[in-house]
Design goal:
alpha/beta, Rossmann fold, 7-stranded mixed beta sheet, 3-stranded antiparallel beta sheet
Length: about 300
């Protein structure tokens, strides 16, 4: 028993030391951003990763520095155990007031064992989020206004949750989308409570929304699309009110294919070989998606030729 406790303590100390080294590396890149902020014209010039899935950490820093935000109020929905997330680097390096939301088992215990909880204020809400309870949860923690960064990645009903949120709630949004849905279609996974993409379809390939559907929704809410991460699954939006403070070139909305070109690999369920884009679309062609143009559920194969 004592050996297990000692091993657990050593593992935690090692992980924290390793995390500290990653943070130091990120802070060096931040200095580059600050020194060259006026010359950065594209999101891909700000790519760096510390705790984010891909290169979101660098893009977030670019946007915060452009808006001159030093004290950050953030919400992140869909964090798993928070070891890999879009806001953890913020928590570790800036003055923050945060709210994270995820149904991950024993989330608070896991996060508390990993972070130095004295650093900042971090509210932890351990529950499934849906389009009906999202505003209630945000209000409960006083995160229903004046947010700087709002990130959502729940692998399912992201569109419907986002649709329910007050558009004035945040300056910046980071939203996951499904690149397999292509650049043209306006579709989403159906609005099912406690949506699980593997329960919905064994492959797990049908989740979230198309990028076109997301851009249209955010435009109605008063937000401008800025681009995506390197791997093409997380998108960035800024309130049009703050757009003049951003010095980057805006994407061509008439050609979104560069942002739906799938750049990550997924495994086939049986033979464990990587699935191609055509494999994925073939596997989910009989799955029902919600067509936002027709305002109804349809099978993907009915419109797959439009992808």
């Amino acid at each position: 028993m004592i050996k297990k406790l000692i091993r657990k303590l050593l593992d935690r100390l090692f992980l924290r030391k390793f995390d500290d080294l990653k943070i130091q590396k990120g802070q060096l890149f931040e200095k580059y951003l600050e020194s060259d902020l006026k010359n950065i014209k594209r999101l891909d010039q700000a790519y760096f990763k510390v705790f984010s899935q891909d290169t979101e950490d660098g893009i977030i820093q670019l946007l915060l520095k452009s808006l001159k935000i030093n004290n950050v109020k953030f919400v992140e929905i869909g964090t798993q155990d928070y070891s890999e997330s879009n806001t953890r680097y913020l928590y570790e390096t800036m003055k923050c007031d945060g709210l994270i939301i995820d149904p991950f088992p024993n989330l608070k215990k896991k996060v508390s064992s990993m972070l130095r909880m004295w650093k900042n204020t971090l509210n932890i809400h351990n529950e499934y989020i849906n389009s009906k309870n999202i505003n209630e949860v945000l209000k409960k923690y006083s995160f229903d206004k004046d947010i700087d960064i709002f990130s959502i990645d729940i692998d399912g009903i992201d569109y419907w949750v986002l649709n329910s949120i007050n558009p004035k709630i945040s300056k910046i949004f980071i939203v996951e989308y499904n690149p397999y849905f292509g650049p043209k279609l306006e579709i989403s996974a159906p609005n099912i409570d406690k949506f699980d993409r593997f329960n919905y379809h064994p492959t797990g390939f049908c989740w979230g929304m198309s990028l076109r559907a997301l851009i249209n929704l955010m435009d109605k809410k008063g937000f401008t699309f800025l681009g995506t991460n390197r791997m093409n699954f997380n998108s960035f939006f800024i309130s049009k009110e703050f757009l003049p403070k951003i010095n980057i070139e805006l994407p061509n909305l008439n050609n979104l294919s560069q942002f739906t070109n799938v750049k990550f690999n997924v495994l086939k369920s049986k033979n464990k070989k990587y699935a191609s884009v055509s494999d994925v679309r073939e596997n989910i062609k009989d799955v029902e998606v919600f067509d936002l143009k027709q305002n109804k559920l349809i099978k993907l194969k009915e419109i797959i030729d439009q992808i």
